[in-house]
Write a structure and sequence with these properties.
By secondary structure, the chain is mainly β. The chain has strands spanning 23-30, 36-42, 51-57, 66-67, 76-83, 89-96, 103-111, 114-115, 119-120, 126-135, 141-151, 154-164, 174-175, 184-190, 196-206, 209-219, 226-230, 240-241, 249-252, 255-258. The chain has no helices and 20 strands. The strands form 5 sheets. Strands 5, 6, 7, 8 and 9 form a 5-stranded antiparallel sheet that branches. A 4-stranded antiparallel sheet has the order 1-2-3-4, with no helix packed on it. It is globular, with a radius of gyration of 20 Å. The N and C termini lie far apart (43 Å).
Length: 259
C-alpha cells in the first residue's frame, strides 16, 4: 500500500507478475537514492519450493520480479534486509540444507544490482529457528540467532551471536547463556556508543503455566553479556536504554537498573 499524504490515505497496489502460488513474509527497505526494495519468500508454481524473490519500485513503476535464489531442492525463507551508509543492501535468510532437520543462516550483499557470494553464518551442527540482523552506523553486521544444537542423537537449544566488521572480517561465534529454552522474534538495535541491544520473547514457567515474557540484553564490544527480563505484568515500560562507561544502564520510567 502507498500513501502520498503522510499516512492519511492509502492506496493498495497489487505487485505485478505474481503467479497463482503462495507468496509470504515480505520485508521492505529504502535505498539512499529512494528506490524501494521488496523481498519475500515465494513460489513460482503450486508445487515448487519457497525461494527468495524481490523487485524494486522507483516511485512510479515496479520492476519485474527477480528470483534471488534458485534451489528447487531446499526451501529458502524469512528474509531480513538493511542498507548500510554506502548504499549496499545486506540480506539474510534461512535455508534448508542437505542434512535432515537443519536450517542455516545465509548472508550476502546486493551492490549495484549484483549479488555477492553468500556465506553461512552459523555452524553446521546448529539448525537456526529464529534470527535477527543489524547493520550499525559503522557498517558492521551483527547476527543473533536461536536454534537447536545437534550432537549425534542428542540435541539442546542454543542461542548465539556473531559479528562481521566493515572490512569483511568475521568474528568467532559466541554462545550466549540466556537460561531459557526458546528466544523467539528477536530484534536488534545499536546506540550512539555502538552498544548492541537485543529484545526477544521467551517462555517461562510460572505457577504451573508457560508465561511468555519480554527480555532485553545489552552488549558492548568487549564486555560480558548483561540481560534482564521485563515482566509482561509489570506496569512499567522500557523507554530508554543508556549504557554507561562501566555498566549497562536500563532506565524504566523512573527506575534505574544497573547490571
Amino acid at each position: 500500500a502507498k500513501s502520498s499524504d503522510q499516512g492519511e490515505n492509502w492506496t493498495e497496489i497489487e505487485l505485478p507478475g505474481q503467479e497463482i502460488a503462495d507468496q509470504r513474509n515480505p520485508v521492505i527497505a529504502l535505498s539512499p537514492n529512494e528506490t524501494i526494495y521488496l523481498f519475500w519468500q515465494g513460489k513460482t508454481s503450486a508445487t515448487s519450493t519457497y525461494q527468495i524473490r524481490y523487485l524494486t519500485y522507483d516511485g512510479s513503476s515496479f520492476s519485474e520480479i527477480k528470483n534471488l535464489t534458485d534451489n528447487p531442492d531446499y526451501i529458502q525463507g524469512g528474509p531480513v534486509i538493511s542498507f548500510d551508509s554506502q548504499g549496499k543492501l545486506h540480506l539474510a535468510w534461512m535455508s534448508q540444507t542437505s542434512l535432515p532437520n537443519r536450517k542455516e543462516l545465509i548472508y550476502g550483499i546486493l551492490n549495484n544490482q549484483q549479488f555477492q557470494a553468500t556465506t553461512s553464518v552459523n555452524s553446521d551442527d546448529v539448525s537456526v529457528e529464529h534470527f535477527a540482523m543489524l547493520i550499525d552506523n559503522q557498517n558492521n553486521a551483527h547476527f543473533f540467532w536461536h536454534g537447536i544444537f545437534h550432537s549425534g542423537p542428542s540435541w539442546h537449544y542454543i542461542t548465539q551471536y556473531r559479528k562481521k566488521d566493515s572490512s569483511g572480517n568475521w568474528r568467532e561465534i559466541e554462545t550466549l547463556n540466556l537460561y531459557e529454552q526458546v528466544a523467539e522474534t528477536p530484534c536488534l538495535i545499536s546506540d550512539e556508543n555502538n552498544n548492541i541491544h537485543l529484545v526477544w520473547h521467551s517462555l517461562h514457567r510460572s505457577g504451573g503455566f508457560n508465561v511468555s515474557k519480554i527480555n532485553h540484553l545489552a552488549k558492548s564490544e568487549d564486555s560480558t553479556i548483561a540481560s534482564s527480563t521485563i515482566d509482561s505484568k509489570d506496569p512499567y515500560s522500557l523507554v530508554v536504554v543508556s549504557p554507561s562507561a562501566h555498566q549497562p544502564l536500563i532506565r524504566i520510567r523512573n527506575v534505574n537498573i544497573l547490571m
